[in-house]
Structure formats: C-alpha cells, structure tokens
Amino acid sequence: MSYLEYNRETIPTGFAKVLYLNWALVVLLIAVAGVGFLMLFSVAGGSLSPWAEPQMKRFALGLTLMFLIAMVPIYFWRNLALLAYIAALLMLVFVELFGSVGMGAQRWIDLGFMQLQPSELAKITLVMLLAAYYDWLDVGKTSHPFYVLIPVLLILIPTILVLRQPDLGTALLLLVGGAMVMFCAGVHWLYFAVVALIGGGGVFSVFALRGTAWQFLKDYQYRRIDTFLDPESDPLGAGYHITQSKIALGSGGWTGRGLMEGTQSRLNFLPEKHTDFIFTTLAEEFGFVGGVSLLMLYIGIVAFCVVSALKNKDRFSSLLTLGIAGAFFLYFAVNMSMVMGLAPVVGVPLPLVSYGGSAMLVLMAAFGLVQSAHVHRPRGRA
Asked: How far is CA 185 from CA 181, 216, 230, 317, 329, in A?
C-alpha cells in the first residue's frame, strides 16, 4: 500500500517527529562511534590527533545530518531517488575522468576540505532507487523477466563503473546489496540460483584467464586472493597484512592486553591500523570480549532496522530500511571476515569505527533515511 493512501493525520508532524525517532537506534550508533573514537585515540598513542578529533567532528556533523533527513517526509526521498541515483552515476563518471588517485586506485573527488568517494553514495542511492522501483511496480510483476532485467541493469551500471576504479570490494557490495533488495521485494529464488551458477562459472573464468590478455582482475587483486588462500607463502610481502592481523587477534586472548597496550599497533607492525584493520587493534587491546561486544552492537543496529521495516506498511519505506540494514551488515561482516582471514582483503572499512570522511557521512545520511521511514510510517488513528 502506498504512503499517500494513508490519511495524513496518522503521520506525526512538527516537534512530535522528534518523539517518534528510533532513539534506541540513535544510542547504538553513538555507542559504536564511541568505540571508534576510543580506538583511534589508542592507535595515536593516547592523542586525539590526528584521527580521533576529526572523526568526532565528522560524526557530530553526520548525526546532525541524520536528524535533519529524519524530519523530512519519506515520500520526498522516494521522489528524489532517481535524481540521487543519476547524480551518483555522474560523480562516478567524473571520478573515472578527473578523480584523485590514491594507493593505486582512482576513487576520490578532491573537495578541498575532504576527499569524497562517490562509490559510497552509489551504495545508498542504488538502494533508494530499487526500493522506489518496487514500490511503483505491481507486486504480481515482481518476478516477470522484463521487470527483473530493469533492476539488474540498475545494479550493473554503478558496479561496472566502480570496478574500473578499480574497487573490487565496493563493487561486490553493490552487487550483493542490490540483490538483497530484489530478494526482499519478492523476486523468485530461481533467478538467484541461476546467478549463483553463473557466478561460479565466473570465478572459474577468473582463475582460468589469469596471466592472459583477457584476465578479469588486476594483478594486485590476484595477489590478494593468493594471500587469502595461503598467507604464509609470502609473510613479508603480500601476506604481511593478514599475518600481522592474525597475530594481533590471537595475542588479545579473552580480555585483551588493555587500552594502548597492543604491541602490534603501538610498534607499527599492524598496517592500516586506523582504517581497514582497526578491528584487530580492538581485539588485541580488549580481547574476545571486546570484539564480541562490538559485534553485538552492530547486530543490535541491524535488528532495530529490521523490526522497523517489518512494522512499516509502506512498501518503499520497508524495502529502503531493509536495504540499508543489509548494506550495513555487509560492511561489518566483510571487514571482520577480512581481518580474520575468512575473506580476501578487499579494502572495506569497519563502519563508524574506521577513520574516514565520506563513508561516515554517507552512512549517517543513510540512517537518516531509516529514521525518516520510521518517523513517518503510518500508525493508524489513535
């Protein structure tokens, strides 16, 4: 049932919107961000600079952005979905032509005061457009081949642009995140089975064509796969990151060495300790208990989003919330799997904990959309 089919009297207005915010979700987001501040303070040797203080300012800005977005009716964001998606694509094209290069990849737009990564925007705008598409589409047509092809194309366009940067990790998140929205919308499972078979063939082709002129991946991406399969084969080269990460994880034990007592990060054995591998610093200093505690906070955020989506009678709001919850889950699941050696190193940050600008702001904007859907959901007459 469409949002506009409900009487507007069932939707909170004015200051009452603040009361209808999902405050439990706000508290969980602040708690996770607080863990990030603490770890950035620790890896800097007990200093707020150069990472913790800027991260605090970005989170404050992101929290403000979340509240502002939450106050805007959800139908406004639905009507903006196509424009937002097109804007994200244009920024991806701009990155392809004029983007800033860092660590061998061309992924950023230099805004002067920060480096904007359009692929982060693409993740959220894709979810928005897919949710709007299935809100518009008749439920009976969800699994019709023609109407399945349209969202597939919407997913593939930004995925291909991101792959060209190259950014395999984000491209995979776009694919899986888009597929999750399609599944939640009710697309028949046989389509996903066919894609899984094709994906298996694609994986075989990736390895079969290695070393030829038609190889799919860059050489460094193949090295990441080699490192994942056998990190001990090159412990001082390609396997250095994951080897040091496992040492840090194991040395933390049950309760950890204590704040700022992690030898791997303090002695700079652990690379990217403030970004992609910050979870290993947490595990070394606070042990298994600290790692599981952070995981529980993440699961709590996803759970509150799922419950909110299931209670929402508006199809767009429900799919949007589920899509953002799924994207958030992929973020921390892939990062944690990566640093534990359960997945290849693909450069995915730990949400709200890893140091970063555009990822933090885009994620908080996404939770603003979740809050808007929660605040403006039809609740029926009192």
From this structure: 6, 31, 39, 12, 18
